[in-house]
Amino acid sequence: MLKPKHTPTRELLNLDGVWRFGIDSRLSEQPWTALLETPLEAAVPASYNDLFTDSEIRDHVGWVYYQREVRVPRGWAGERIVLRFDAATHAARVYVGDELVGAHIGGYTPFDVDITDRVKAGGAFRLTVGVSGDLSNETIPPGRIEVGMDGRRKQVYFHDFYNYAGLARSVWLYCMPQTRIADVTVVTDFEGSVGTVDYRVELDGDAEVRVRLADAGGVVVAEAQGVAGSLVVADVTLWKPGAAYLYELTVEAVDGENVIDSYPVPVGVRTVKVRGHEFLINGEPFYFTGFGKHEDSPVRGKGHDDAFMVHDFQLMDWTGANSFRTSHYPYAEEVLDFADRQGIVVIDETAAVGLNMGVVGGMSGVPPFPTFSEQYAGAATQDAHAQHIRELITRDKNHPSVVMWCIANEPASNEDGAREYFEPLVKLARELDPTRPLTYALVMFATFQNDQIIDLFDVVSMNRYYGWYIAIGDLKTAEMYLQGDIEGWVERTGKPIMMTEYGADTQPGIHSVWDAGWTEEYQVNYLAMNHRVFDRFPQFVGEQVWNFADFATSNGIHRVDGNKKGVFTRDRKPKSAAFSLRDRWRGLNGRKPGATE
């Protein structure tokens, strides 16, 4: 699915702004059939939960409705007219006037609704969007809804970040030709100074295809015709971490000399491979430094914000970070576009978080019932998970910044049934994209002794909290635990190993001369202990601290105003750990500690 863009043959109208808003319990039975009877208005893009002071809205379980009037530009007569939703968390129903015209399940990937036959150029229509944040054992991420003693429905979920809902990303109306370019896939390679760009184009309609590749200065360096082919680039400039270089592939559907449709695709020429225990970008060993992140900010919730995006990238650059993981869902496309241009490496993750009943059992890791069962993660869950993988890879396959797919965070990979659940998903991901390595983030309960699926994947990604959830305040013991854990994975797998989560909750301004939890000094010492261990293993290929910034979570006595493992506060102020990471990372430049030029 191509991202809407202004091109010589396509036009785009942004529908962001303030929309009428109401929750289903306060609206008529079919609220889309008329103007919403509500005094409320909600910002788009933004999660709705924190916009209002009404707790009934914040904690609402069920459908909410957004509504606005949309006028179609009068010059769009004869064109295909489409509504585009960059995301609706977690399910959506779209109404034009009184009619249901489209629906989507999945809160972090885009969907289009063709409304050509329902609207007229120059005319206006009432657009109503129903959005549900409800989670069940048939959704990704999963959850369940309980009914309390007072009859209220309550959402229970098994991931440790707030279940923000709503239209958190942009909404668009766009037009394109009836015969159009439906999709473009790009795969790059190089040998010596010669690069290759293999392309494949899907058309909707009958036309010829021609393509041209231009360098960053606009000079055409290669051309071809046909729906598939290979472009050769002499004296290629590679896309590198920290040194992004983008070509532009212009794809045209033509009838003779008449251009029917045109679409540009940024192209970064680079390769990604796993060789033994090395992770290679452009044939050179790469060492990840960076963070697990969240789309999370005050008031907006998970609403995308360009200002926060730019500032976050600046702070990552300031620390010396070269990468991040989109924990625990696909981020807005604007974030990946920006990473492409900034040379930041991305591990792109599905929304499959919470597939682990052992977490419900607490640190014992004993599940109340099997995770992989029809009671929880069964066939319907697996189908939803597969669809998420399809939509993620289809959306993000052309981004040079994306170097690895992470298809789940902390699943119960130690439980029976894990292999039957994951093996078909791994096969699907490799069919959709055979060019990138696959990983999943390992929960602490999944050890080198009991994990059942690591052989299906390319990189061992560990989430470990020795010194926090285990042996808190005793970093000597924590160091021995971590050392033995990594040794076990090295001996078992022979694969590259990285830490995708390690961190300690820290309240800014709390200090101690001892190793006391929640203090800024302890966070610094905790990270230093982990780094000492990482540096002992040549098989180790990266470290991503949990978390970049403090973030909102559900209610819980172990969370005071959210998760405080951020190196930065929620409003992006640095803790002491930010400075210690800067001292470590800025000298590494993507190389393993101790490695030479």
From TrEMBL:
The keyword Hydrolase applies. The keyword Hydrolase applies. It comes from Microterricola viridarii. GO terms for biological process: carbohydrate metabolic process; glucuronoside catabolic process. It comes from the Bacteria. This is Beta-glucuronidase. Residues 179-270 form the Glycoside hydrolase family 2 immunoglobulin-like beta-sandwich domain. Residues 272-587 form the Glycoside hydrolase family 2 catalytic domain. It is an enzyme of class 3 (hydrolase). GO terms for molecular function: beta-glucuronidase activity; carbohydrate binding. Belongs to the glycosyl hydrolase 2 family. It holds the Pfam family Glyco_hydro_2_C. Keywords: Glycosidase, Hydrolase. Its EC number is 3.2.1.31. NCBIfam families: PRK10150.1. Residues 14-177 form the Glycosyl hydrolases family 2 sugar binding domain.
